[in-house]
Write a structure and sequence with these properties.
- The protein is an alpha/beta fold and 258 residues long.
- The protein has one domain: NAD(P)-binding Rossmann-like Domain (Rossmann fold), CATH 3.40.50.
- The protein is built from eight helices and seven strands.
- Strands 3-2-1-4-5-6-7 form a seven-stranded parallel beta sheet, with helices on both faces.
- Helix 2 packs across helix 8 and helix 4 packs parallel to helix 5.
- The longest helix is centred in the middle third of the chain and has 29 residues.
- The protein is globular, with a radius of gyration of 18 Å.
- The N and C termini lie far apart (46 Å).
């Protein structure tokens, strides 16, 4: 194995990808598997889970699917128990469950606000608590929380989503500070604009034009373009001293001013 291969190899590692049935985390699951990790795809849909596992298998990777409800601490506990029974450890955790809404600011109701915060922020907190405890007991691990470009600065039309993702960024930094000495690294992967299920409602023609005008690369990202950043954050070799960062993959969007 070459130096570069060894640096990014995940052979013998177990990676749990919450939201792995979705577009972005699904590609991340494929990337982790192709780097050698045994991937556990987590979601609610058995059908989508089986499809993702099949795709990973076709690429020569190893994967399995476990259904779980991230809104339930009990369900997350059962998920961890199943993973440990099958693999004995958890080396990498990707927290990618999330929802969005284009509701205008003055029309956001308490129920919607609470629901989005609980899924986008509460679920990540619960998952980090459940799996973080295991990683602390093991003596190490990597947690990758999926943030958003809207967590760095406010974006129109996604008020609650932006607030929830900004909180995820802050939570991740706090966990990184808390657990660094025990070998558990916590980072935020920050995608720019990647067309996916949860943002299609707000990608109107005018909004797409505005996004392109603010993106130096002048295009949307492709989901597989998150894999390089994912492997850096996941690898205990390549990312051994990387914790508490916001790794932005956005075609230059966050660097654009006027």
């Amino acid at each position: 194995m070459s130096y570069v291969e060894d640096l990014f190899s995940l052979g013998g590692q177990t990676a749990v990808v919450v939201g792995g049935t979705g577009v972005l985390c699904g590609e991340m699951a494929k990337g982790l598997a192709q780097a050698g990790a045994d991937v556990v795809v987590v979601g609610r849909s058995e059908e989508k889970g089986a499809e993702r596992v099949s795709e990973i298998g076709a690429l020569g990777g190893n994967a399995s699917f476990i259904a779980a409800d991230v809104a339930s601490r009990e369900s997350l506990g059962s998920l961890l128990a199943e993973v440990l029974e099958a693999h004995g450890k958890v080396d990498i955790l990707v927290n990618g469950a999330g929802v969005n809404s284009p509701t205008p600011l003055l029309e956001i109701e308490d129920e919607e606000f609470a629901r989005i915060l609980d899924i986008n922020l509460g679920a990540i907190l619960r998952s980090c608590q459940v799996f973080g405890r295991q990683m602390l007991e093991q003596g190490g691990g990597s947690i990758i929380n999926i943030g958003s470009i809207s967590g760095l600065g406010p974006l129109s039309k996604v008020f609650t989503y932006s607030a929830s993702k900004a909180a995820v960024h802050n939570l991740s930094k706090n966990l990184a500070r808390e657990w660094a000495e025990q070998g558990v690294r916590v980072n935020t992967l920050v995608p720019g604009f990647f067309p996916a299920e949860q943002n299609r409602k707000v990608l109107t023609e005018d909004r797409v034009a505005a996004i392109m005008g603010h993106t130096p690369a002048n295009r949307f990202g492709d989901a597989h373009e998150l894999n390089g950043a994912t492997l850096l954050l996941a690898s205990a070799n390549a990312g051994s001293f990387v914790t508490g960062i916001e790794l932005i993959v956005d075609g230059g969007f966050a660097s654009m001013s006027i």
